[in-house]
Every structure is written in C-alpha cells, then in structure tokens.
Amino acid sequence: MPGDGGRERTHGVLVAACLAAGVVLGLVAMTVKGSDPNHTAFDTALSTTTGFVYLGAGATAHARRPTNRAGLLMAWVGLLFFTEDLKLSTNPVLFTLGLLFSTASGPGIVHLVLAFPDGELKSRWERLLVVATYTVSFGLALAIMLVGDSRGLSPHREPNLLLITPDDGLAELFDRCLEGVGALIAAGVITVLVYRWVTGKLPQRRLLTPVLVVALTGACLSVVGNLAGANGGAGPGGPVIRTIYNLVFCLWPLAFLLGVLRARIGSAELARLLADRDEGRLSALVKDDAVWQDSHSYNALTAAAGLVRDNQRLAAELEKQLAEVRESRARIVSASDNERRRVERDLHDGAQQRLVSVLLSVRMARQRLGDSLTPELDEVLTATAAELQVAITELRELARGIRPRILTEDGLVPAIRSLAERVPLIIQLHLGEIPRLPDPVELTAYFVVSESLTNTLKHARASRVSIEVVIDNGVLRLEVTDDGVGCAELSADGTGLSNLRDRVRALDGELIVHSAVKAGTSVLAVIPLGS
Length: 531
Known about the structure:
Helix content: 55-70%
Number of helices: 17
Strand content: 5-15%
C-alpha cells in the first residue's frame, strides 16, 4: 500500500507520545484520586484500570495494525480520560486543567466511534460532527470556568485560575447545556452505530456488534442511573448502577480492540466478495470498505484479487481454446462436406457417365447385329445391359446418399418429403415455413432425418413416424419420433447418431435422444441458424 512506511512512522510517534503522557497522567490521577476522601479504593482502581486499558488497547492495536489510526485514537481516549481526574489535584494549575478537561473523554470516544474500525472519518459530516463535539465540550467547559465558582470542588478551596466574574446562574445554565449536548451526542453516536450495523455487510456487523452491545448497555445504565439518582447518589440503587456503568465502560476499549484485530478478512471471503463486484473496481472496493484499510487486510485483498485475476485469465484462455475447437470442428465438417460434393460430382460426371455410355454401346450393338446374333451372344449382351443398369442405379443411390441433388436444388423441405416417400411406414410430416438455409445447416438437418429413419427401419420395429421441422427465434428445431421398441442410445463408437451429434455440435447446436423400452425413440436436433 503506497505511503504505508511514512504513515506507520507518524502513527508510531503519536502513539508513543500518547502512551508516555497517558502513563504519567495516569499515575498522577491515581495519586490525587486515591488521596481524595470522596472516592473509594475500588472506584480509584476501576477508574485507573479503565484509562490504562484504553492505553494498552491502543498500543496493541497499533502494534497489530500500524497503519490503522484506531490504535492512536484509543490511546488518545485513555490520555483524555486521565485528564478528567486532574480536577481533584491540590495544585491550582492541575486543578484548572482538570476543570477544562472535565468531559474530555466524551469527544475522544465520539471520534473513536465514528472512525471505527479503521480510524478514518469517511464523510465531511462525520468530520464536522467530531469538530463540533470537541468545540462544544471544551468551549462550554471553558465558559463554565470563566463564570463558575468552583471552590466547592477544589481541595484547597481556591477558585480556578481562569475565573473572571462569578455568576452561579450563568454557570448553571452552561452546565445544563453541557449535559444536554452530551446526551444528544451520546444518542447520535448510538444511532450511527445502529445504522452502520443494519446497513453493513456481514463482516462489518461482526466488528460492530461488541462495540454496539457495550454502547447500548452503557446508555441503558445511564438512563436507569439518572432515574435512580445515580448522578447524585441519592437513590438507593445509584452507587450500584454507577459501579456497573463504570465496569461496562471499562470493557469498551476491549470491544474496540477486538473489532480492530478482527478487521482482517480471509482471502477466501475477499475472493467471494470480489467476485460479486464489477470488474475493474478494486481501488474503489479498498476505499469503500473500512475493514480493509490496513496493510494486513490490503495484502489479503491483493492476494484474493490475484486469485480472481488468475481465474479470469484461465477462464479466458479456456474460452479461447473452446472457440478454437469449435472453429476447428466447423472446418472439419466443412471440409467433409466439400469432399462429399467432390465425390458426388466425380461419381455423377465420371463413373456414372462412363457406365451410361457403356450401357448405350451394349444396346446399340444388339440393335446393329440384329438377327445375326446367336442366342448365346444375345443372352450375354442382355445380361450385361441389365447389370450395367443395376450398377447405374446403385451409383445414383450412392451419390444421392452423399449429397441429394434435390437438397441442393430445392432445399430442406422437399428433400425431407422425398425421404418420407421412400420409407414403407406411416409418416406424419409437420413442416413449417422453412426458407433456404445455410448449406451446412441444411445438410446436417437432412442427415439427422435420414439417419433417424434408417435406425427406425433397422431396429425400432415401428409402424408410425413423426417428423417435425420448425424455426423458432433463429433456431432450427428438428424432431423425429417413432412408436418403436426404443432403447436407442448415443454411443461413442464414431458411427450413426454419435457422428450426427458431432456434426450438430460443430454448428453450436445439440442433439438429444430420448428412448425408453417400449416407449419409442425421439431424436431432437437444435441448430442455431447463425452458425
């Protein structure tokens, strides 16, 4: 990922600064809070533990995800959390700083939640909300300090160093505003978490669930605590609820840390998600999905993208090879058809014409010799003429089987009718309006009908055959059905129907045979006319 080295160094320096300052402030806060009679040892220990847990979670998150700002933000929240206890110090300067930072952890948590899990604020509105939260929190705290007499909070009973003119009414108003704004911000943060959980993908929901559970639990405890008088400690359940709230708040950094550490998605899941995306949107995918904004996840994403790219390359190569096979098969069929034409032409113009010439010569010899022929010679010439006639007939049948002249001259429908007339079975023809088709399509369709009828006569013991030929949406559908004994099958022996299937597939079509015992046989050929 470009710029990772510089980002890691910058984050490392900032995290180290927050950790160093946080440890120092944590020790100071633990000392001043432990010496304050209004706070028990348990309260002090729990408060100190919470701050150090944030610092430790930030350090761990940064160590595992150096380019992820979430670790820096967790350490920042821990630092701000300790500054709140400085108002218990007897030192006027620390006391004043403590008052200024009395609600400092709130804006830090808002910043962390909105930037979770990658530490980046995604939109301008999120950035404006974070800036407004910091501004309102510190601004109202400063306004309260300027007019509020805080000697009741100070261990040394001295006002803060920033007090100008005491005005208890105005200070109370600012304090109520700060509480109201804090409640609104808390509600907004929970709303953002719920919205992200509802609209997020499954991996994002898994990351947000612990954070959302802790946030909702804390919000419920805060509401119940206010109703029970927890803030003032007047209610009977106030201290207990306050303690449980602090315990839940102590768990929040662990929930953030768990989310950051789980933000690394496996390559298999990334590959599945990549497959659902439009091609060429890898960079947008990295920017849009927050769970992938660190070097570890980026590496996994890159590996998954490489797998997808390799699969696409292999698929393209396979498709290219299949196209070459189709073209090669089509060339073979075309060459075979051309060879059929040549053989037919040679038989018709060569051997057949020579046999016809010999037959005419024999007949002319009988006519010229007339009565001078001996009975034995006349019998020989007559037998020779008969044999020549049989040879010519067989040669014509052979030429017709190679490529029927009627198919070449008149088209597919007349050729099928001619076939049906020569079959000694009841033939039902359902022939649609079939125009002249491409030569390979017509010849293949003719052979499908011819081979199907031949198989029916040889093996089916059928009494009735149906031939249907239609054109539907640019596809020629041809079906030959008989009522015979069935059991026909597409064998792989390179003869009969298997050869027909190869011819049909060479035209990007398909040959389907349905045959069951005593249920007849159906041969269906589907041939795209665009082939």
